[in-house]
Amino acid sequence: MAKGATEERKKVDAVERALSILDVFSENDVRLSLTEIARRTGLYPSTTLRLAGSLEYWGYLRRDADGHFRLGPTVLRLGSLYRDSFDLGEVIRPALKRLSEASGETAAFYVREGEDRVCLYRHHSKHPLRHHIEEGVRLPLDRGAGGHVLMAYTGGDTEIHRQVRAEGYRASFGERDPETVAVSVPVFGVGGAFLGALTLVGTRTRITEESVPGLIELLRGEAAQLQEELDGRRTARA
Fold first, then answer.
1. When comparing pLDDT for 174 and 100, which is higher?
2. Which of 92, 176, 231, 233 is deepest in the core (most CB within 10 A)?
3. pLDDT, tens digit, for every residue of 44-103?
């Protein structure tokens, strides 16, 4: 391995070890000793101390007088930003309702969470035979129209992802469920920031190759309206 690549790998390893430290905290373990952090992460105490010092410097950790660590204010700030970025229900839900009523299919809004996609909001079809999915469910990123769209706009660089970015949509026939078809487009927010995937899902008996273009048009129209509304809300708050 070349020297530059080795140095880059070392930097990535350091980041991953630091993140593993943050990951050991939970609602039941809000304060942990250095020894306990080292034990849970499998890191040497000296490495744990060094990384914890960097995390403390940047506000991700705070060290109490007794030497125990707890999460710092930076985590709270980022958590608040994360929550606010997804506090879109009052905008997304009406769009999903319109999409579902116009298409007759289930409409959903997905976001990426690590190596999964999460259904943040959904509006079910009124058909007795329909694709049924609940809010909060986690699905794989590597299958389904919504997963491909999320990957395409969060670093994915396969031929599929490049095609999604070029065409601005993805349709999938039976990728995750052999009887299900999905069509998805990206949703952008203020300043063109990528937010998630707007998706229509239905059965193969109703969604065909011929009907996909009409669904894409519906989805793109709602995605554009969402971006316009989010930009307007940002301007009104400014």
1. 100
2. 92
3. 999 999 999 999 999 999 999 999 999 999 988 887 666 566 567 888 999 999 999 999
- Contact predicate 133/106, CB 8 Å: yes
Kindly report the CATH number assigned to the domain that includes residue 30.
1.10.10.10
Listed residues 78, 98, 119: the one ending a domain: 78
Beta strands 106-113 and 116-123: pairing type?
antiparallel
- Residue range 185-206: average pLDDT? 91
Number of domains in the chain: 2
User: What single letter denotes the amino acid at residue 147?
Assistant: G
Residues 98 and 177 placed together within one structural domain of the fold: yes
**120 & 225 share domain:** yes
Q: Which domain holds residue 35?
A: 3-78
For the stretch 205-212, contacts whose Cβ atoms lie closer than 8 Å and that sit 24 or more positions apart, written own/partner, are 205/129, 206/104, 206/105, 206/127, 207/105, 207/181, 207/183, 212/171, 212/181, 212/183
Q: What is the largest distance, in Å, between two alpha-carbon atoms of the chain?
A: 68
pTM over 0.85: no
- Give CA separation, 206 vs 107, 199, 209, 219, in Å: 14, 15, 10, 17
Angle at which helices 159-167 and 145-152 cross, to 10°: 90
Please state, in angstroms and rounded to a whole number, the distance separating the CA atoms of residues 44 and 64: 21
Both 222 and 113 in a single domain?
yes
Q: Do residues 126 and 65 share a domain?
A: no
